[in-house]
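Handover notes (outgoing to incoming on-call)

Open items:
1. Heparanase-like protein 2: sequence verified, structure written out, both below. Nothing else pending on this one.
2. Nothing else urgent.
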Amino acid sequence: MDLKCIFSLVIIVSRISLSFTQNVNVVIQGSTSVAETDDNFDLKKKVLINAIKAFNSLRIKVGGSLQDQVVYGVGEVKNCPNFMKKEGSLFGFSQGCLPVERWDELNNFFNQTGVNVTFGLNALLGRNESQNEKGLWVGDWNSQNARDLMKYTISRGYKVDSYEFGNQLSGAGMGARVEAEQYGKDVIVLKNMVKELHPYPKTQPKVLGPSGFYDEKWFNSFLEVSGQEVVDGVTHHIYNLGPGDDLNLITKIQDPSYLNQVAQTYRGVFNIVHKFKPQSGAWVSKSGGALQGGAKDVSPTFADGFWFSAGKLSFGGNYALLKTTTFISNPDYYGSLLWHRLMENIVLAVTQESQESNPKKKPGNSIIFVNLLKDSSFDVTLSSYEHHRCNLRSTDAAKPNFEFKSYLHREEYHLTALGGNIQDTFDIPAMDPKLVNASTAISVAAHSIVYETIRDFHAPVCV
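Heparanase-like protein 2 structure tokens:
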């Protein structure tokens, strides 16, 4: 099968200068693969259903900040109250309940839209907050309510792709935390329960965790305790822009140093997964740029596209891809949809020849250029290393082909803010690409995002 590939580059410049255009040459190494990526309200609203089905294949996580305060209205749970504001409680809310009728509605919605479901389980049930240390929850996890939910789900023929254990309980936690050793023991209990209730490996849901911020010591202890073949995906969260109420957020989102901070987290998670769980993978299970629901004047605007949280389809907070009142798409929805349609698994190595710019690789099967500067544009030319043979000598691999003559056309998508205002919440028109002569330079305007697709580029590593 001829896999589509990823040529990805973010043009980021750290100093602001007078308005001018820079020339940049990008070299695609078609014989080099640097990574691979993973494929994969009113629930009757047609606009919501269509927004999800447009992705064709989408993963939806049910959970979030309040999931560790949710009980499930099945089994022995007869009283099923809604969440209520409660001062002094975790996140300021009382314990709430997921009624079985709502679980039925959700699963009908999942079946209709064809999504893969990750369900976030309550990992604090049965525990109590320590009297000696605020925020630390102690004791063993009570798994009975989760067991009852799984048994009901199986009896109805509902499909859950994976269960994620708790939300932001790792390290220092977010409101609440659990010691790594205790969390590791409880994940073993969850894994054994999943295996018992789903005895056939091919239909067995995955077990994910810890679904929190990366803390090297905590993650290390957790994975040592849980051991091999327990966690199928090591999940972590990315909110590298800080709290949403930061008045300087619009500046941060245009600062490459803040956007690059996440690279250190990725390296840490990759290394620890490689050490303890080589058979599993590293997953980003939550991301929104800014914490605490995002920022109302930044997260739902075009500016958030520079941070680019591809694939997040949130229905709450300021970073939702759809407006919570009208379900009209925010600008990030279109960026996520383009990423999903154009990018695939294999990540190719790319380099660029310019002292003013700094390349950053991103996954996909096309090229994405993100220009953070408000007063400088770029003209980018493409070249590739010799790629017509799979077994290249090291000397051959260093020969770039600057002409790119064999490619007649490329498809371009240019995303810009209306009137140059990157905090505007405008509606982006239909996403039909421009067909451009492949030999011409790619014009990347100031404060813009550009996607490029070259349909007839075949790299050996992708075959």
